[in-house]
Amino acid sequence: MSSPSHYLVIDLEATCCDDNAFPREEMEIIEVGAVLVDAGSLRPAAELQCFVRPIRNPRLTPFCMRLTSIRQADVDAAPRLPSAVAQLKELVRGKQALFCSWGDYDRRQLERDARRHGVTLPFGRDHLNLKRAFARRLGEERELGVGQALRRVGLSFQGTHHRAIDDARNIARLLPHALGLDPHDAGARPSPTAPALTRPRVAPATPAPRAAR
What pTM was estimated for this model as a whole? Predict the structure, then answer.
């Protein structure tokens, strides 16, 4: 894609278990958190939070509720995934937005669920793995979790861990560091050595459990 007008930072929470109650490929999105960041100022311009009602495993496991703090009532009252995708479409309407996430899990899960529901995602296949970009920019030998990355640059996590909107907000705070820019430098643009975009294969790999992030 050409230079984006915005970065769309997305984080997801999904159904999960710790007792092999269902296979990983049956994980389904239960919360979408998205922060739209202006590419010129690197400041948040808008955001979206919505719960999603799963269809394969509609009852959340005790492990999932403890991990995410999402309640059964939250997803029972929520619409299906197509509604969340429609809200994402509205969020990026008229903008050249580049989809970003901390690692590849969120991309794979979003694509998997979109195929299940027969909906088209409102952005191209270009994707920026901020977890990998951050490690490369800061010379880290291994890729860090969000909390570790924040501490690496002298920041602390704000909000609740494993809640999609709070994770997305914190990832947006790490965006300038992943791009190699001064977070206080309004109007900055990524350097010519900005991290390369990935174009995922049609058949994505099985996502890792959320607890391992």
Answer: 0.86
